[in-house]
Amino acid sequence: MSFCNRQHPWFLRLLQAMAVCCLWAAGAAGATTTITTHWREARPGDVPAEILREAAARPLPSFDPENLQILPNAPSGTWVVVRTLPPWTTEERVLSVRHPGLGAVSLYDENRLIATTSLDDFGPPLHGHGRLIFNIPASIPASRPLLLKFEASAAPPGAVTIKLSSWPDYLRDDGSWMVFATGCFAVMMTMALMALCFTLILRDMTFGWYAAYLICYALIQGLRSGFVYHPLELQGLAGMADALGAAATALSVSFAALFMLRFAKVDEYVPLLRIPVLGFAVVMPVLIVLRATGVELLAGMAQLLLQPLVLLGALLFVIAAAIAASRGSRYAWFFLVGWTPLLVLTALCGAQQQGMLASAPWLPDAAIAAGAFEAIVLSIGLSDRALTIRHDRDRARELADSDPLTGLLNRRAWTEAAQTVLEQGLARPVAVLFFDLDHFKELNDMHGHASGDRALVAVAAALRHELRPSDLLGRYGGEEFVALLQGVDKENAMQIATRLCRRVHRLEVHIGSAEVLLTVSIGVAMRTPSDGVQSLVERADTAMYSAKLSGRNRAVCAGHGPVLVKRNDAKAAQ
């Protein structure tokens, strides 16, 4: 982590800012009415009025309603008696239950059932956001105890907190949580969408595995908090939270494994851990299949193994990323910074489900914030990866299009570029110049191929300097060059070709004796309506051979009339 402190202090600042926002949002609440809570397991034949009389006659086990409490998942449910301490109010109040799990909760007033609701309930009762709420009308005196019944559920019970607030206080608290949760889920889904776009654009499944992982994690937190039910109103998910949550948990580990293998380059930096990490990508979906078989033994085994394997896999990913980072994997650092807080919070939330850390009811909300933080950090890393991939591809394309010796366009790239110009129509005249160095074979034979290469580089530089940036200049092969000029007529094309002949002659590259210098013969062809790239180059090539036959070191224009020749002897060059 010393690397992060030295090189990436903004990571730490971002982590601190996210933690402060999480604690503020999770802990921001209005003033609440002080209450006491007692509980006992429900038994068959229980009557609410009798439970209240029993609670008044003898003390029942109590718990702090502001701290997380795991109530026993008894076969008949669990009763909770809620008493309001004075001073009492006469206004309507809201009784809210946070993190109730997937079971239903009923509210009684003596013998009367006031309401029954659950996180995935879409019936008439009031719906909270991330909690169950009950409206306590003003007709029920604040001095009268209330009775909650947590119904038995096949799913594990939640670690609950209970609060009694006025409506203004509740709405303020609810608004804070909605802003916080909506922002976190929006960040996760936005980053997932961005990753999917990169997957399609770059055709790199690293981004696809990351998007799939983010979607699974957002679904897990949305189910646990009830966000997918209210406010999203996804009624189709009602009753599916247990199976869907387990499947999303297993798949999130699988997708995280596949993502981390490619993103942190485990194959390259930690090859010994490749198989264990890949094993989690395979084993976790198998657990889903075992749960779906309906065979009690297999489903029970899958349920028993799920959470331990999730924590073990997360720990393995951190170890693999830490080793890869220490060995030079740049992106492993992004993975560590994003993943480690999430791992810590997952472990702490798991400990809460076992009855520990009851005084930290904000931890489940912190897990949502950690998901958003991880999405931001890893998306920054993925963006950096996308830029690197784009740069590498551009560089590869540049190398593929360039002549390695002169840096000009090679024959293929020049032909493609010229074809694009010709496809623009006949609005502007186009000229093609075909160059061939004179006596170049003698230069190679007398001074060696290294001297010939230096001559080619010098000629290419001279031609590039004389031509416009918009002119297409390329090496056609050997000592041959080709240029396409737009917006020039025949006369201008010949003037340019003559100037280029003189420019090459002034390089003073000696062929053999001191009196013989390197020159160039140039053929010029003007585009006609029937010309394509091939025919245009062939006519320029033919004109170049006419220049050779006419004495070299000159330019010749191919046309329908007489061949034009402009000499460029040594005297003119001087």
Structural class: alpha+beta
Into which percentage range does the β-strand content fall? 15-25%
The poorly predicted ranges are: 1-12, 22-31, 560-574
Strand order of the largest sheet: 3-2-5-10-7-8
Give a count of the beta strands, DSSP E runs of length 2 or more. Answer: 17
Gyration radius (Cα, Å) is 39 Å
CATH architecture of the largest domain: Up-down Bundle
CATH topology of the largest domain: Rhopdopsin 7-helix transmembrane proteins
Give the CA-CA distance, first to last residue. 69 Å
Shape: elongated
Largest beta-sheet characterization: 6 strands, antiparallel
CATH class of the largest domain: Mainly Alpha
Question: What does this molecule look like?
Answer:
It is an enzyme of class 2 (transferase). InterPro entries: 7TMR_DISM_rcpt_extracell_dom1, Diguanylate_Cyclase, GGDEF_dom, Nucleotide_cyclase, Rev_trsase/Diguanyl_cyclase. Residues 428-560 form the GGDEF domain. Its EC number is 2.7.7.65. The chain crosses the membrane at residues 177-200, 207-223, 243-261, 273-292, 304-324, 331-354, 366-387. The chain has 574 residues and is α+β, with helices and mostly antiparallel strands. The protein has three domains: 2-24 and 174-387, Rhopdopsin 7-helix transmembrane proteins, CATH 1.20.1070; 27-173, Immunoglobulin-like; 411-573, Reverse transcriptase/Diguanylate cyclase domain (Alpha-Beta Plaits, 2-Layer Sandwich). Helices cover 53% and strands 16% of the residues. It has 17 helices and 17 strands. It has helices spanning 2-7, 9-27, 48-57, 167-202, 205-225, 241-263, 266-269, 274-292, 296-326, 330-352, 363-401, 411-422, 440-447, 449-466, 490-505, 533-549, 570-573; strands spanning 32-33, 35-41, 62-63, 69-70, 78-84, 93-98, 105-109, 112-117, 131-136, 146-150, 159-166, 430-437, 472-477, 480-486, 520-526, 554-558, 564-567. The strands form three sheets. A six-stranded antiparallel beta sheet has the order 3-2-5-10-7-8, with helices on one face. The chain has a six-stranded mixed beta sheet with strand order 13-14-12-15-16-17, with helices on both faces. Strand 7 and strand 8 (112-117) form a beta hairpin. The longest helix is centred in the middle third of the chain and has 39 residues, at 363-401. It starts with a helix and ends with a helix. Residues 1-12, 22-31 and 560-574 have low confidence and may be disordered.
